[in-house]
Amino acid sequence: MYLLKDRGFNHRTPSDITPEAVYHARRDWLQRAAWGLAGAGLGPWAAGQALAQAPGKLAALPGSRSAVPGAMVMDKPTPYADVTSYNNYYEFGTDKHSPAQTAGTLKPRPWTVSIEGEVKKPKVYDLDELLKLAPMEERIYRLRCVEGWSMVVPWVGYSLAELIKRVEPTGNAKFVQFTTLADKAQMPGLRSGVLDWPYTEGLRLDEAMNPLALLTFGLYGEVLPNQNGAPVRVILPWKYGFKSAKSIVKIRFVDKQPVSSWERANPSEYGFYSNVNPQVDHPRWSQASERRIGEDGLFAKRRPTLMFNGYEAQVGQLYAGMDLKKFY
Asked: 103: exposed, middle or buried (C-beta count within 10 Å: 0-12, 13-18, 19+)?
């Protein structure tokens, strides 16, 4: 609480204190600490954290420039240090900085992903099989969090459709469910009751088949850091970030709409679709604008949020005729 008061939050109402505003307050304070303005004891720690977050730490995973329409946005990429140190990954803690500090316990190898349900060719894929299944591409996507902040990330992977076509969904397959690893020995956050574990997410099959839906193995030309969902996750750039399941161990094809983890936890706030939509607010804050991480300062200018996060030309047809306030 002292941190919020220190940054002027004692003059604000609770509805004004959004998670991303708290982050920037905390970040400002840590920077001051690193500069020796908040106590000499914390300065070396904060400086060390900054130095630790640099490219070249992990195995290279190059990808060719993607030719998929919309896959290479022209926005300036968010610095690697921010992408890898500001993460929502509750299996490793609910604080934004906890995953970078605690996810070293995750063991991304050996790793398998089980393909189950309504498919003609169910299979358990080894990670190396998945890495070789299709050519790797670099895609620069906007990432928009439901909390009101955004990033721009150079991911590495290939269209999820490449995997889906190989397992041949049956005519009964209407939806795809993703399940994240849930291992208390590797994930200290599982001891909390913030969500029902394991974390699950879902898509309609046609959403999963859209070329922008990315089966993702890396970022910034390297394999995924643990805190970013190693060793394999999905990225769905037109949806809020929590839809993009991390550290996937199971993909199941089903005939009925699955209930995702956040939908189960609070259905009035988190719907199944969760498309980025500036016209449909979260019950506790507006979605009309966002703060881009890396554009520092508590009072940095917010930018307007784009419909479908700027990917309307590529995905808008998936929702033609739908009431997007009802199907939020």
From this structure: buried
> pLDDT grade, residue 200 (50/70/90)?
very high
Q: DSSP string spanning 135-157?
A: --EEEEEEEE-TTSEEEEEEEEE
| Residues in Cβ contact with 290 at an 8 Å cutoff, skipping those fewer than 6 apart | 144, 148, 149, 150, 302, 303, 305
Nearest to 61 by CA among 161, 9, 152, 128: 128
What token pair was written down for 289? 């604008």
Under the phi-then-psi rule, with left for phi > 0, alpha for psi from -120 to 50, and beta for the rest, what region is 8?
A: left
d(CA 63, CA 156): 6
Span 307-317, average pLDDT: 98
Cα torsion 229, 267, 240, 163: sign: positive
Element containing residue 180 per DSSP (H, E): strand 175-180
